[in-house]
Write a structure and sequence with these properties.
Layout: E1 2-8, H1 16-29, E2 34-40, H2 52-55, E3 58-60, E4 66-68, H3 69-78, E5 87-89, H4 90-103, H5 113-132, E6 136-144, H6 151-164, E7 169-176, H7 189-200, E8 207-212, H8 218-228, E9 235-239, H9 247-253, H10 256-264
Parallel strand pairs: 1-6, 1-7, 2-5, 2-6, 7-8, 8-9
Antiparallel strand pairs: 3-4
The structure holds adenosine-5'-diphosphate.
The site of adenosine-5'-diphosphate has 14 residues, from helix 1.
């Protein structure tokens, strides 16, 4: 199993869910088996107690797991029913660690963020990979890099990539290109700082998705490429479109699907006849 790990920078609400589900859809169209998972930073055990006016409507999965609308996006995009295996919160991870601690599973060791909490995150991902027999597991990390509450997820992903070895994980950093009205041009500095935050946490992105109101200029993409060590062809524009259902076609048109396939070294597994 390979992993595509999607993380946000600069601000939340950039469309991590839309990107991850669209990319998963493109991989599914190539005959690959995919399984998504969303990792939420909050301490609630599920989204059922969240005020819909603050967080948006709750989405209920077949096994009763209450989560957010992103899971609905995955279900619609992939035409697949999901379950609690596809959703976790910090609350679930910590509960599981504390349950094991009371049960004596840690054999007298002090229970720590590393390796026990990060280990629990990796366990959840590997269980999903085994149960779904997916070629690619798509991991979406809620919140943005730099949040205290999701830092252990990012560390867990760094460990996962190290343990699984080169070519096993593809890191995608979502960032935002500002275009202040008074200036009338796109500015990439905030986007660069966002990516830098990921790099400070030990994550070198393989792909940078630039959200913006308008198509991102060559100059802004060039700058981000140089400052984030990501080749220019892997820095792409994911600008606002009238419908999110056109995002998969937008990603395919800029060839980012094949960049992911090359990065993961799975060219031999795809079946282009399956592509619609
Ligand atoms: P995140 O998971 O990063 O919080 P979401 O995936 O929930 O973000 O997306 C946030 C909002 O942005 C959603 O309302 C989504 O429909 C919208 N959105 C995402 N990508 C695009 C795009 N390329 N064009 C227009 N709207 C988008």
């Amino acid at each position: 199993t390979r992993y595509v790990i999607v993380m946000g920078t600069v601000m939340s609400g950039l469309g991590k869910g839309i990107f991850a589900s669209s990319m998963a859809k493109l991989m599914q169209d190539k005959g690959l088996r995919v399984a998504p998972i969303k990792l939420e930073g909050y301490l609630n055990i599920d989204s059922g107690t969240l005020n819909p006016f603050r967080h948006g409507e709750v989405f209920v999965l077949d096994d009763g797991m209450e989560c957010d609308m992103d899971l609905g996006t995955y279900e619609r995009m992939l035409d697949k029913d999901l379950s609690s295996a596809n959703f976790s919160t910090s609350g679930q991870i910590y509960s599981s660690v504390l349950r094991k601690e009371r049960h004596g599973d840690y054999l007298g060791r002090d229970v720590q963020m590393i390796p026990h909490v990060t280990g629990e995150v990796k366990l959840k991902l590997r269980r999903l990979a085994m149960a779904s027999e997916a070629d690619i597991v798509f991991v979406e990390i809620g919140g943005t890099a730099g949040d205290l509450e999701n830092a252990f997820y990012i560390e867990a992903m760094r460990e996962l990539a190290y343990e699984e070895g080169p070519g096993s994980c593809c890191f995608v950093g979502l960032t935002y290109i500002l275009e202040p009205q008074a200036l009338g041009e796109q500015k990439s500095k905030a986007a660069q700082l966002g990516i830098k935050q990921l790099m400070q946490m030990g994550i070198q992105p393989d792909i940078v998705a630039c959200r913006a109101s308008n198509p991102v200029s060559e100059q802004a993409r060039q700058k981000i490429s140089v400052f984030s060590n990501v080749p220019y062809e892997r820095v792409f524009s994911m600008h606002d479109c009238p419908s999110i259902y056109t995002v998969p076609a937008m990603l395919r048109d800029c060839g980012i699907d094949f960049e992911v396939i090359r990065l993961l070294g799975i060219e031999d597994r795809i079946d282009l006849r399956a592509e619609r």
